[in-house]
TrEMBL record, chain A:
It comes from Rhodocyclus tenuis. The lineage of its organism: Bacteria, Pseudomonadati, Pseudomonadota, Betaproteobacteria, Rhodocyclales. This is Cell division ATP-binding protein FtsE. PROSITE patterns: ABC_TRANSPORTER_1 (PS00211), ABC_TRANSPORTER_2 (PS50893). Residues 12-249 form the ABC transporter domain. InterPro entries: AAA+_ATPase, ABC_transporter-like_ATP-bd, ABC_transporter-like_CS, MetN_ABC_transporter-like, P-loop_NTPase. Part of the ABC transporter FtsEX involved in cellular division. Important for assembly or stability of the septal ring. Gene3D superfamilies: P-loop containing nucleotide triphosphate hydrolases (3.40.50.300). GO terms for molecular function: ATP binding; ATP hydrolysis activity. Pfam families: ABC_tran. GO terms for cellular component: plasma membrane. Keywords: Amino-acid transport, ATP-binding, Cell membrane, Membrane, Nucleotide-binding, Translocase, Transport.
UniProtKB/TrEMBL annotation, chain B:
GO terms for biological process: amino acid transport. It holds the Pfam family BPD_transp_1. It is a multi-pass membrane protein. Its main location: membrane. The keyword Transmembrane applies. GO terms for molecular function: transmembrane transporter activity. Keywords: Amino-acid transport, Cell membrane, Membrane, Transmembrane, Transmembrane helix, Transport. InterPro entries: AA_ABC_transptr_permease_3TM, ArtM/GltK/GlnP/TcyL/YhdX-like, MetI-like, MetI-like_sf. The chain crosses the membrane at residues 15-46, 58-79. The lineage of its organism: Bacteria, Pseudomonadati, Pseudomonadota, Betaproteobacteria, Rhodocyclales. This is ABC transporter permease subunit. It comes from Rhodocyclus tenuis (Rhodospirillum tenue). It comes from the Bacteria.
């Protein structure tokens, strides 16, 4: 799998974007600024209806902002004409809660589609599809149809399809919310690996704190169309300030045992082999912060950023 | 040979001829035209600007709310009053096409609308245009959903073309009426006519079954969570 070169500077920058759906009383997204660093895995967490998906969809303009600027890499997406926008979208992968594989196409055809749209040569498409399916471990299913796959397999195909055009950015809307815990872990591992190995910037929407803990470098907490707080999970720790963030961080899908589990133990069960064993050094002492453990899944990020 | 049997044999060829030369072409042409019209109307209603949506809705409302026979009479017997004179066959063709168009537009509209929104999003997110998304992924899936109800409309249409007899189109039923009026054996003749319609609709139904098998393969709504 060819690597995409890690970019420098903000990979995604939203400036004052707003979205108000016709007929609804309030805006789904109030004027919002958000800057995602290149190489970052950034979470957006909040309750259902908070506007997370809308914000994510504003990034690749599946949703047109009413106002504001959307920049991804060097492109100002919100100013591009249709043809250029479609080309730009090919540099932004997207995966979904319901996977959204194209039902009428086989696994291989799904992965090939973005490349065919881009006009790549049949030979290079074939090679790239094989490479991507191999990466997600589904070479054997190339000829299968989406209806014949499990949820986890569908999401892997969706990831392969998103990766095929070698995007610099991957948008993920609740990618594990339809999956069981074990499959969730395997998908999170793939996302962490994509980020670490290929330097892909990941913007991930979730309502599960456990996903944020296991994967994200930073998280934006969203409530009623606004980002109410941003928390950096790398730099030791800043305690959550807003009530919502405190509640999210203190509450738990994570049991106290899991929350305080040393990374060395977690590494033995679910971590990529590259995770260093001493990543729990930053676990702070206060109660709210105990809920956050720098897990092996985001440990590789430390190498990228601090090594 | 008993009288009733020789009567049936004698009238068999004229009836079959009327079917092959008038009923089948009328059915196929008006169904093809109706499908195109129905597709255009469905797109107008789903994606068109609001005036076009209103026109399309009015058309569907009007056609579905009035008897087909009355529509045919307006076209063939009524339009000459305002200076538009049509031969019987073209008048019937226009009438059936308009009628099929209204009904199939509803089927096609529902089929396109029932392709999950996520399919559009996935298509857009990998850089497809609206047209590409429509052609490459939405329509193939909508087709799987639309084929069964559309083929039902098709079978109904074969039988409905008997109404063209009232416009003097010499199709099967008209031929039967003509023969019956000289032989005075309506029971035998109309029974035979029924059998001939049965034959044509059965042949076309078996084509329908094959079509459904072909299009239904990978696009069943049950595979939708993909
Ligand atoms: N296409 C749409 N049309 C109208 N309202 C929408 C649409 N998409 C989302 N909304 C509304 O916008 C708000 C935010 O939705 P969403 O971004 O999906 O929230 P989340 O992903 O955080 O659950 C909700 O009130 C939702 O009903
Ligand atoms: Mg959502």
């Amino acid at each position: 799998m060819p690597t995409s070169t890690a970019k420098t500077g903000a990979a995604i920058r939203l400036t004052g974007v707003t979205k108000h759906f016709a007929g609804s009383a309030t805006a789904a997204v109030h004027p919002t600024d958000l800057a995602i660093e290149a190489g970052e895995i950034h979470g957006i967490i909040g309750f259902s209806g908070a506007g997370k998906s809308t914000l994510l969809r504003l990034v690749n303009l599946l949703e047109r902002p009413d106002a504001g600027l959307v920049e991804v890499g060097d492109d100002e997406l919100s100013a591009l004409p249709p043809l250029a926008l479609r080309a730009a979208r090919r540099r932004i992968g997207m995966i979904f809660q319901q996977f959204n594989l194209l039902h009428n196409l086989s696994v291989a055809e799904n992965v090939a589609f973005p490349l065919r749209i881009a006009g790549d040569s049949p030979a290079s498409i074939k090679a790239r599809v094989a490479e991507c399916l191999d990466y997600v471990g589904l070479s054997a299913k190339a000829a299968a149809y989406p209806g014949q796959l499990s949820g986890g397999q569908k999401q892997r195909v969706a990831i392969a399809r998103a990766l095929a055009p070698n995007p610099g950015v991957l948008l993920a809307d609740e990618p594990t919310s339809a999956l069981d815990p074990r499959t969730t872990q395997s998908i999170l591992d793939v996302l962490a690996d994509i980020n670490q190995r290929f330097g892909v910037t990941v913007l991930l929407v979730t309502h599960e704190m456990s996903v944020v803990r296991r994967l994200c470098h930073r998280v934006s907490v969203m409530d009623e169309g606004r980002i109410v707080e941003q928390i950096d999970l790398r730099t030791g720790f800043t305690a959550p300030r807003s009530e919502l963030a405190r509640w999210l961080f203190a509450s738990g899908e994570a049991s106290p045992a899991e929350a305080t589990q040393p990374a060395t133990v977690a590494a033995a069960t679910s971590a990529p082999a590259t995770a260093p064993a001493n990543t729990s050094a930053a676990v702070p002492a206060n109660a709210a912060a105990r809920a956050i453990v720098v897990t092996p899944a985001n440990a590789p990020f430390r190498e990228v950023y601090h090594a | 040979m008993p009288h009733w049997l020789s009567l049936m044999v004698d009238s068999f060829w004229p009836l079959l001829y009327a079917g092959v030369v008038f009923t089948v072409p009328l059915t196929l042409l008006s169904f093809a035209g109706g499908l195109l019209l129905g597709f255009a109307v469905a797109l107008a209603r789903l994606f068109g600007p609001s005036p076009l949506v209103k026109v399309a809705r009015f058309y569907v409302w009007f056609i579905r709310g009035t008897p087909l026979l009355v529509q045919l009479f307006v076209i063939f017997y009524g339009l000459p009053n305002i200076g538009i004179v049509l031969d019987a066959f073209p008048a019937a063709l226009i009438g059936f096409t308009l009628n099929v168009g209204a009904y199939t537009s509803e089927v096609i509209r529902a089929a396109i609308a029932s392709v999950p929104r996520g399919q559009w999003e996935a298509a857009y997110s990998i850089g497809m245009s609206w047209t590409q998304a429509m052609r490459r992924t939405i329509l193939p899936q909508a087709t799987g959903l639309a084929v069964p109800p559309l083929s039902n409309s098709f079978i109904s249409l074969i039988k409905d073309t008997s109404l063209a007899a009232a416009l003097t189109v010499p199709e099967i039923f008209q031929a039967a009426q003509r023969i019956a009026s000289v032989t005075y054996e309506p029971f035998i003749l109309y029974s035979e006519t029924a059998l001939i319609y049965l034959f044509f609709s059965s042949v076309l139904s078996s084509a329908q079954t094959r079509l459904e098998a072909r299009f239904g393969r990978h696009s069943s709504p049950l595979g939708a969570a993909g």
